[in-house]
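Lecture notes, continued. The same structure-token format from the folding unit now serves as the input rather than the output. Read the line below as a description of shape only.
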């Protein structure tokens, strides 16, 4: 079966538990015996963010990895610092936000297409990882409501995190924040960027350069929305603004 490697963690002296996202059965965790040995034959196919063909054998307590054949190692993701950071963030998010046994073929396709686009991009912008998060949230059932957005690039559109999208458009001032809610004031331009994130081509998204202020706003909104609706906290999220935002 086709699988994208998400992570590996040590288990006993020479073994590791490998987290995979497969096209057929969603997320799987399998035991790779002897993978830490220098002569391990499957090691090259189990690098995180690699696409491989794997054979999994059922086990009593945990399934075992029988074979792994590399199909796409994406060398550009390992030689470029920015690409490597984005790839690591992407597979970490998938690993954190998915559960073993949940079948979502569209999610496998989403991650595969994104990795291919990232590999091909000459100088990928940080917008690529933000767009992936929004499409991942969409696949998980948390698509934001972007209807009724203000057309003006200067008039505020109010996005409510707890209410799942735009709650008022065309206002000149930000309303009071309801207790326990987070709201963001977005220009029409930023709403258009969010729509692009959800439906645009990856080649366009990876070349989309934003002013640092706009990037920071969308980065903070993306984190707040993801954390609220999934219940998962991402401690290192803000390094996106520090590491990639400097390029804006």
């Amino acid at each position: 079966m086709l699988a994208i490697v998400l992570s590996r963690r040590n288990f006993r002296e020479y073994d590791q538990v490998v987290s995979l996202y497969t096209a057929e059965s969603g997320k799987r965790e399998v035991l790779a015996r002897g993978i830490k040995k220098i002569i391990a034959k499957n090691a090259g196919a189990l690098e995180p963010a690699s696409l491989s063909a794997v054979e999994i054998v059922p086990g009593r307590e945990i399934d075992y990895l029988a074979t792994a054949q590399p199909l796409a190692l994406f060398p550009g993701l390992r030689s470029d610092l920015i690409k490597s950071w984005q790839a690591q963030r992407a597979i970490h998010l998938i690993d954190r936000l998915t559960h073993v046994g949940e079948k979502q073929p569209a999610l496998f396709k989403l991650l595969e297409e994104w990795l291919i686009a990232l590999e091909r991009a000459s100088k990928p912008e940080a917008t690529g990882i933000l767009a992936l998060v929004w499409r991942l949230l969409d696949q998980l059932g948390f698509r934001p409501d972007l209807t009724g957005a203000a057309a003006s690039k200067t008039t505020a559109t109010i996005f409510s995190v707890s209410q799942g999208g735009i709650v008022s458009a065309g206002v000149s001032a930000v309303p009071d924040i309801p207790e326990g809610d987070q709201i963001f004031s977005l220009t029409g331009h930023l709403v258009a960027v969010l729509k692009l994130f959800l439906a645009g081509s990856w080649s366009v998204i990876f070349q989309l350069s934003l002013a640092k202020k706009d990037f920071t706003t969308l980065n903070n909104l993306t984190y707040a929305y993801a954390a609220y609706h999934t219940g998962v906290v991402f401690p290192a999220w803000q390094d996106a603004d520090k590491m990639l935002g400097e390029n804006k």
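Point for the exam: The longest strand covers residues 2-11.
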